[in-house]
Description:
The structure holds 2 protein chains of 2 kinds. Chain A is α+β, with helices and mostly antiparallel strands. Chain A has helices at 13-21, 81-84, 121-135, 142-149, 167-170, 198-204, 214-230, 241-245, 252-257, 265-269, 315-334, 344-347, 355-363; strands spanning 5-8, 25-32, 35-40, 51-56, 59-64, 88-96, 102-106, 114-119, 151-156, 182-187, 190-195, 276-282, 288-295, 305-306, 309-310. Chain B has helices at residues 32-37, 79-84, 123-134, 157-165, 211-223, 256-259, 265-272, and strands at residues 8-19, 22-29, 45-50, 54-59, 70-75, 92-99, 112-118, 142-150, 169-177, 185-186, 203-208, 231-234, 250-251, 254-255, 262-264. At the A-B interface, β6, β7, β12, β13 and β14 of A face β6 and β14 of B.
Amino acid sequence: MPATGFLPRSAFDRLIGALVQAGYRCVGPQVRDGTIIYDTLQATRDLPYAIRDQQQPGSYRLEDSDAARCFAWANGPQALKPLLFRPHEVLWQAQRHANGSLRFLPATADAERVAVIGARACDLAALRLHDQHFLESTVVDPGYQARRAGLFLVAVHCTHPADTCFCASTGDGPRATQGFDLALSEQDDGFLVEAGSEAGERIAARLPLESASAAKSQAADAEIDAAARRQTRRLPSRDLRDALFARLEHPRWQAVAERCLACGNCTSVCPTCFCHREQDEPALNGNTSSHTRDWDSCFTQGHSYIHGLTVRADTRTRYRQWLTHKLGGWHDQYGRSGCVGCGRCISWCPVGIDLTEEVAALLGEAAHG
Amino acid sequence: MADPYVPLEAEVVERVQESPGIFTLRLRLTDPQAHAAYRFLPGQFNMLSLYGVGEVPISIVSDPEDEQMIDHTVRAIGRVTRGLARLQAGDRLGIRGPYGRGWPLAEAQGRDIAIITGGLGCAPTVAAINYVFRRRARYGRLTLIQGVKHSDDLLWRQRYQAWAQAPDTQVLIAADRAGPAWPWHVGGVTELFAQARIEAGRTLAMLCGPEGLMLAGARHLLGRGVAAEAIWLSMERSMHCALGHCGHCQLGPLFVCKDGPVFRYADIGQYLDVRGL
């Protein structure tokens, strides 16, 4: 899509103003506790200016950089997942009356309008997968639907991939191509702005946009193309379904299980992992009980617990479940791989397990290019 | 649209102790309109919700044409089912459903039916057996094979005895260990497979129980020439939502809650062989 215009850096706060005026709470990336997380954004000065992330298997570090930019970094642990698929959510409440009768009350959907500034291409691809899962499969998830309906997305094309990124090989980045209302290409002096929806056009119309020169557009495109070329990690194919399901008894599953702590970090930071458990939390008054949903992980013992036995009793079968679902089962379920190449599971794994390396070993190939 | 996660209130109309650890709850939705509108197919299941404790998936054993009651036969084995075991007539609980794909009773019309079950695996097939007996002329021969660990574990003994007397029906039951006056086989249920009078080309099979038993049953049927497409298995996995959202029930690429729980062997046989999948 051609650029709508150029927003000078000096006018960047006008974007937040326009979104707030349109009724959105703005959320944007900010440095917190040594990483970059999404939180309410009051002003663009709170964005991670001149900050660079150094990511390696099992390592995430922020450093100062000399880039005069707010988005010269790849990603933090969160993606968009917690904004829509809440880590903890009440699904319904039960009331028990004195005569023993029960009343079940649905949770009131929180219909807040939220605008996210800084969504990455990989995160938009993951959001598309969660839309399929929570909105377009058999039943609609009401809470997700309400939050999704109020979401406005300002994407930023990725120009600074981390060493752990491999979105180019999954086809999900570094350029944001779908699912955004506005997309930004950051330059030192400002932002090329393109609209991806009518809502985005309405916000763009309120910004003091200058015309975008062809030279600026070309320079921005060149940066994104270079970002794709800089990625060294890759998956050997976008469809590994048959290859993985043909290797369910491969010795590599045991080899990776000997390193894996089964902590579930990978599933927490994965922007597409959707597993959650439901449980009841009765109040001490004895009359009300909340039925809640919390993120779950296929690495826990409880995940496959069934009337007295655990189907996946060891780490070997749990890692196998995670990888064969992520790269295999998703094709049957939602028509593509469940991996968007963000690399978070690699960086946030405390022992540095790299799924691209595991796949290469399973397939008997070299991991890097 | 109603929130798909929220249960309806049901009342326990009757509680039947079937065996020391197994009981049946006969339920009625307290909203008469909801109860009248409730429909299910044999092989489907409900989520039962015990106040303050949790939800569990339980198959429906009553007859789909019984408009009085929705029956669930439950083994008291986990945190929720041990709590459900304490419910008495008049107590309330939550229920939502029915969920999943049931037995292929339309596809089975005009064919012989072989049902192989083990332990409480017989429960999800009882509704199908009743369904067939109500429409006996539409189906061919019926073969029922059920295995239990101990003869005292056999549920619905009188029903099995009555079915054994019915025309065009063969009943084969085995107990690994048996008490006195046990009229059936003592030993493994797989030892009875060879006695089943099965005509491979006419037979549709329904299997439910421990996966090892289902695998053995399916292999025996395949060996006798029954097509993998005509062998159906009811699978069990952890389930929290029953809506295809929570991810617990995955078996390979399948969601047992919505793609099953009843599957063709042709579609899942490859996953049954793999431990811990």
